[in-house]
# Entry
Amino acid sequence: MAKETIRDLTDAQLRGRRALVRVDFNVPMDDHGAVTDDTRMRAALPTLDALLARGTRVAVLLSHLGRPKGKPDARFSLAPVARHLATITARAVRFMPCTVGAAAVQATTAAAAGTILLMENTRFLPGEETNDDALAREMAKLGDLYVNDAFGSAHRAHASTEGVAHHLHPAVAGLLMEKELRFLGDALAQPQRPFVAILGGAKISGKIDVIDALLPKVDRLLVGGAMACTFFRAMGLETGTSLVEPDRVDMAKALLARAGAKLALPEDAVVAPSLDATSAAHPVARDGITAGDAMFDIGPRSRDLFDHEIAGAKTVVWNGPMGVFEKPPFDRGTRAVAEAMARATSAGATTIVGGGDSAAAVDAMHLADRMTHVSTGGGASLEFLEGKVLPGVAALDDRST
Ligand code: ADP
Ligand code: MG
# Structure
């Protein structure tokens, strides 16, 4: 069911109102409280601008930061985030050192028109993560309408992401949320074919549901990363000291049998005795991994194979690096996939990257703007790919058409 978005609201529903906006300002900071990556903050600006430009009186922002465990902890205060926000928007930014309560409500009504008011960390309150209904009602008093633009938190049913939407209407998606749902949703619901998915990363255990959900939908599933090693073990190959999940080998066997030709594993690997022995890194065929070596990346033949598959695709969804991309030369497989996807985008394919580390890799390679969409939600995008209902989305108002 499609959800209402801020674009469905009339000016009359916005003018003079207080919009309570759940954003995802869970950003990394250095020891001095300086924001080191503000991608998520910038991604929320279009929603705030759209609301305020259409006459919303004040945008009241709720966000979590880190894991303060339900009590105030100065290390996780959003105050430095508010200061950073003021440097990336021309609008007036104010910070409230509390989240809910009489003083907080008072601040939302007293703030000058056009103000962005950031409340203190929602996770300072014990009821946030337990989705306490009384807290959700308190949060609802902070606005006249609710906007959820925190896609990265939508897989969590918390008071500020789910509970509050039951007590404040309209409850609609922001522009970032809408974009995420559109790109991820359309890719899965009605993909242009061939549809190729690429999965990698460290562990097969966290992604088994994604493989299950994607297999019936895709034309081809390419597997890289350490995940491939568990499949290799299932095929009876020597995997040396590679990261293998022994308790998932049987599962991998069953998947191999079920997937048939749809599943493509790397044909070769870049191996080394250890991660630090980079000068000893060399490619071997997948049946040539020796007992003393570990696979840290897909090999050159696999790069070519994956490149070829991506070049022929009309829809590409990628989650999980092909190797230990943080440590050259083991970044080459990941780079090859990112570059192949960038070329595919230019050739007219829809290309989508989901997953925190994959998004970081694409960013580091300066290829983010050459993808159709890079999801801002790590865990949320994975759960979406698994076909799960995201509680923060489900709680929003359904579109009536
Ligand atoms: P994402 O965040 O994109 O979903 P994951 O968190 O599943 O991705 O996996 C990313 C991690 O997987 C990276 O830190 C990378 O170093 C690691 N990784 C990838 N390939 C290997 C490998 N062959 N051996 C060990 N670690 C690997
Ligand atoms: Mg990760």
Summary: The chain has two domains: 6-178, 191-385. The pocket of adenosine-5'-diphosphate (ligand 1) is lined by residues 200-202, 225-226, 243, 295-296, 319-321, 323-324, 326, 355-358, 378 (CB under 6 Å). The longest strand covers residues 18-22. The chain is about 35% helix and 15% strand.
